[in-house]
Amino acid sequence: MTPRYSILIPTFRRGDSLAECLESVCALDYPLEQLEIVIVDNGGAAEHTRHAAEPFMRRLTIRYLINPVNRGFGYSFNRAAVEGTGDRLWLLTDDVRPQPDLLRECDALLARDPLIGYVGCRAIEDGYIRSGDGIGCIAETGEVVGNFDIDCGEPIEVEHVYGFSSIFTREALNRVGVYDRTLLSQPYSSGDRTETDHCLSVRDRGLKVVYNPRMAAVHLAKPRPDMSEVSLRWKRNSIRNTLYLYLKHYGLFGKGGAALRLTFLVDVGLLSMLRRPTPGNVAYFANGLRARASAYAHALLFRLRRDVDSVSAFRAALARDLAAHSQHHELA
Questions:
Q1: Residue ranges per domain, the chain?
Q2: Nearest Cα to 302, choosing from 241, 258, 253, 257?
Q3: How far apart (Å, rounded) are the C-alpha atoms in residues 328 and 248?
Q4: The CATH number of 6-219 is which of 3.30.460.10, 2.60.40.10, 3.90.550.10, 3.30.70.260?
Q5: Which of 299, 281, 245, 239 shows the shortest CA–CA distance to 264?
Q6: Is the pTM of this model over 0.70?
Q7: Within 13 A of 318's CA, how many CA atoms are on the CB side?
Q8: Could you say which of 158, 189, 235, 265 would form a disulfide bridge with 136 (CB–CB 3.0 to 4.6 Å)?
Q9: What is d(CA 131, CA 108) in angstroms, rounded to the nearest whole number?
Q10: How many helices (H) and strands (E) does the chain have?
Q11: What average pLDDT is seen over the chain?
């Protein structure tokens, strides 16, 4: 029997958090036999946390997949998405604790409108930072507005959702494919802007993206074990991925010239470096230059590539990756 939902859980070195996440899945007010759990562990042979999931394998249908080497969050999500067999796919990071009625609310919403391809949840998150006006939109200034902790009462159509707990349909996956493989799901990327890009692509393919505040989940927002969120590397990803998003979907001049403004006016660090040429200010400026050059190079590469994000293309790439790693071990 085809599962109603495939729950996609990328994880990395957080066994305790994964166990708590699976416990919250068991507590859902939903038939567990209609759920399939696809866990993709990025820890490799030495650092995976499969032991945390094993006690739940008697209660849940779990497929525990381990990446031979760390390929990043986006790759893990993509692997889970193509391995999942459910009619609907639910991305659930391991630091999320969904409320019990979440899937029943999702069923009711999708039953009302077959054109919905993506559904986002309301975040119950300590310290959530709001910015801009509205919910889940790209402002005319180019600002990526979230505000996904707001309870607006009823589901509303939006441009993007918060990826920590988001559900998309099989039809959406077939139309759009996996997370952007040109940049956003590369191993050297933080994964920032992946879900925003995916949602915008879903809308471009004629499906709706909806934020449903009735579908709520606690998000613990645990620190990433693979990358410091206050490092120059994190800042480089933030600038590069956002600029790439603008270039990919709006070009140089769309959304009030958001790409041009981020290139020349926002977070550049030139004046600080000229006024106080300290090693830190010089490094910040150089880091920003590197981020911008990378964004433009990847945007050009995106224009040149064809069908790289399709499910079939990723399946083929995944098969090559696994075969190459297996062969490497045999030779070793």
A1: 6-219
A2: 241
A3: 36
A4: 3.90.550.10
A5: 239
A6: yes
A7: 23
A8: 158
A9: 30
A10: 12, 11
A11: 94
Question: pLDDT tens for residues 105-156?
Answer: 999 999 999 999 999 999 999 999 999 999 999 998 889 999 999 999 999 9
pLDDT tens-digit series, residues 29-71? 999 999 999 999 999 888 899 999 999 999 999 999 999 999 9
Structure confidence at residue 331 (pLDDT): 42
| Torsion-angle region of 100 (φ positive above 0: left; ψ -120 to 50: alpha; else: beta) | alpha
Side-chain-side CA neighbours of 29 within 13 Å: the count stands at 9
pLDDT in tens, 254-288: 999 999 999 998 888 888 888 888 988 999 999 99
Q: How far apart are CA 254 and CA 121, in angstroms?
A: 28
Angle, helix 279-304 to helix 232-250, in steps of 10 degrees: 30
Scanning the structure block, which residue is given the tokens 């859902």? 28
Summarize pLDDT for 226-238 with one digit per residue, the tens: 888 889 999 999 9
In 10 A of CB 137, how many CB atoms?
17
Alpha carbon distances (Å) from 124 to 103, 128, 147, 221, 259: 17, 8, 11, 10, 32
Q: What is the number of residues in the chain?
A: 332
